[in-house]
Amino acid sequence: MSSRSPHTLVRLDQAKAVNTFDQLEASIITKLTTIFPKVYTIGPLHTLTKTQFITNNSSSSLHLRKEDKSCITWLDQQKAKSVLYVSFGTLAKVSHEQLLEIWHGLVGSLKPFLWVIRQGLIIGEGGLGHNVPMELELKTKERGLMVNWAPQEEVLAHPLVGGFFTHSGWNSTLECITKGVPMLCWPLIADQTVNSRCVSEQWGIGLDMMEYVIG
C-alpha cells in the first residue's frame, strides 16, 4: 500500500490544458477560469510539437498518412495567392453526390485548386472515379491537382495558396490561423460548426458556408 497521502494527489478537474492561445479566445479562457482554478493555454500545439521534432533532429513524421510532396512542385508553378487548398481532414466523410457538387464548383470557379481526396473520404462504394463526367476530369487536368494526402502545414505556408476550403476541424483551423490563410468553412461533424461560426462571426477570417446551406 502506498504511503503517499491522498491529499497530495492532484484532482483531474482542478486544471485544464487547452490547445488554444489567449489572444484568440480570451473571453472563453476567462469563463473557464471561473470553473477551473487553473487553465493553461498551450496552443497552437502543432507549432510546439513541430519545434520539438526539429530540435531533436527526429526523422519521424508527425503524420500517420503518407504525404504526397509532389503537390509542392505543382504549387510552385501557380500564380501568387491563386490556389484554393481543399481538405476535409482525417475523419469526415462526404457522399458521392456532395463530392460531385464540390467538384463542379471548383472547376466552375476557374481558379487553380489542390484537393486532398483521402482514402475513406467518400461514403459508399465506387470511389472517386465512379460516374464522374468526362468534363470534370478534363478541366481538373487544366487547373487542378488531387492527392491522397498533402503536407498541410507546408501547403498553407506556401505563398501561392490564397485560401483553404476546410471542414473546420480545430487542428486545421489553428494551422490556418497561424499561417494567415483565409478559410471557406464547411463543417461536417462534432465541434466543427462552432469553429466555423467563430471563424466567420467572431474572428472575421473566413466564411461560414452553413449560413448559405441552411438559409
Question: What would your notes on this structure say?
Answer:
Residues 1-10 and 51-55 have low confidence and may be disordered. With 215 residues, the protein is of the alpha/beta class. It has helices at 26-32, 45-55, 70-75, 96-108, 134-143, 152-156, 170-179, 192-202, 210-214; strands spanning 15-18, 38-41, 83-87, 113-116, 144-147, 161-166, 183-185, 206-208. It is built from nine helices and eight strands. The protein is elongated. It has a six-stranded parallel β-sheet with strand order 5-4-3-6-7-8. A two-stranded parallel sheet has the order 1-2. It starts with 14 loop residues before the first strand and ends with a helix. It folds into two domains: 12-55, no CATH class; 70-214, Glycogen Phosphorylase B (Rossmann fold), CATH 3.40.50.2000. This is UDP-glycosyltransferases domain-containing protein. Belongs to the UDP-glycosyltransferase family. Keywords: Transferase. One of its GO terms (molecular function) is UDP-glucosyltransferase activity.
Itemize the secondary structure elements and their pairings.
Layout: E1 15-18, H1 26-32, E2 38-41, H2 45-55, H3 70-75, E3 83-87, H4 96-108, E4 113-116, H5 134-143, E5 144-147, H6 152-156, E6 161-166, H7 170-179, E7 183-185, H8 192-202, E8 206-208, H9 210-214
Parallel strand pairs: 1-2, 3-4, 3-6, 4-5, 6-7, 7-8
